[in-house]
Design a protein that fits this description.
Residues 6-122 form the Response regulatory domain. Keywords: Activator, Cytoplasm, DNA-binding, Phosphoprotein, Transcription, Transcription regulation, Two-component regulatory system. The modification 4-aspartylphosphate is found at residue 57. Its main location: cytoplasm. It is found in: Cytoplasm. By secondary structure, this protein is of the alpha/beta class. It is built from nine helices and ten strands. It has helices at 14-27, 39-49, 65-74, 90-98, 111-130, 136-154, 162-171, 180-187, 191-203, and strands at 5-10, 30-36, 53-56, 59-60, 63-64, 80-85, 103-106, 178-179, 207-212, 220-225. It has a five-stranded parallel β-sheet, sandwiched between helices. A three-stranded antiparallel β-sheet has the order 8-10-9. The longest helix is centred in the middle third of the chain and has 20 residues, at 111-130.
Length: 228
């Protein structure tokens, strides 16, 4: 029996779908069992292939991903859904949350953010497969991203955008330091913008900074994830 998570990609742009497929291969632990570019095609494949995880676009040529989500839930099909979409309206987000999506990624998706979502999914799935009973601390840990993180996003100060913040956070998934210049280049933003987000994460207790003197030029602040 394969330990790979069976994934289906529903995306109207075939090139984007292929890009997501390659991302999944790079991360490891996933097997893409189907790709669909329309609602009709998606529903046929979903019913037959029964994937464990679906990467779902909202805008399709013959319908919406939200309609597919509702259809899946009406069938009681046991699969998790990550919505990947250009939809930035509150109503779509609310419908997605009511449909039980485990994550909501805004296009254009940066690979570190998608990787973070998939790694988080893998971690939760592994925990649930091995736990024999629940206690409140485990429930709180499982529900953290769907409650606490959303509440944090609602309290973000002026000038701090949730999408950009997640891109910055994703850079520090491993214990590797970045300067503001390096972080800005990685996410496609200016040094000033990157530094604003880095300093916010310091104030939040997620990052710490040190001074890197290097060999030439002025000293630079170097940011690193706080290890707890």
């Amino acid at each position: 029996m394969s330990d790979l998570t069976r994934v289906m990609i529903i995306e109207d742009d075939l090139k984007i779908a292929e890009l997501h497929r390659r991302y999944l291969e790079q991360i490891g632990g996933f097997e893409v069992v189907g790709m669909a570019t329309s609602k009709a095609e998606a529903e046929i494949q979903l019913e037959i292939l029964e994937p464990e995880l679906v990467l779902l676009d909202v805008y399709l040529p013959d319908g919406t991903g939200i309609e597919i989500l509702a259809w899946l839930r009406s069938l009681n099909q046991e699969c998790d859904v990550i919505l990947i979409t250009a939809a930035r309206d509150v109503e779509t987000l609310q419908q997605a949350m009511r449909g039980g999506v485990i994550d909501y990624l805004l296009k254009p998706v940066m690979f570190p953010r998608l990787e973070a979502a998939l790694k988080k999914y893998q971690k939760r799935t592994e925990q649930l497969h091995h736990v024999e009973g629940l206690d409140q601390s485990l429930v709180d840990e499982m529900m953290q991203s769907s409650s606490a993180e959303k509440n944090v996003e609602l309290r973000l100060p002026k000038g701090i955008d949730g999408v950009t913040l997640e891109k910055i956070r994703a850079l520090f998934k491993e214990d590797k330091p970045f300067t503001a210049d390096e972080a800005g280049e990685m996410i496609g933003a200016s040094r000033t913008t990157a530094r604003r987000y880095l300093e916010f994460l310091i104030s939040n207790g997620e990052l710490e900074a040190d001074v890197n003197y290097g060999t030439v030029g002025r000293p630079e602040r170097c940011y690193r994830k706080v290890i707890r």
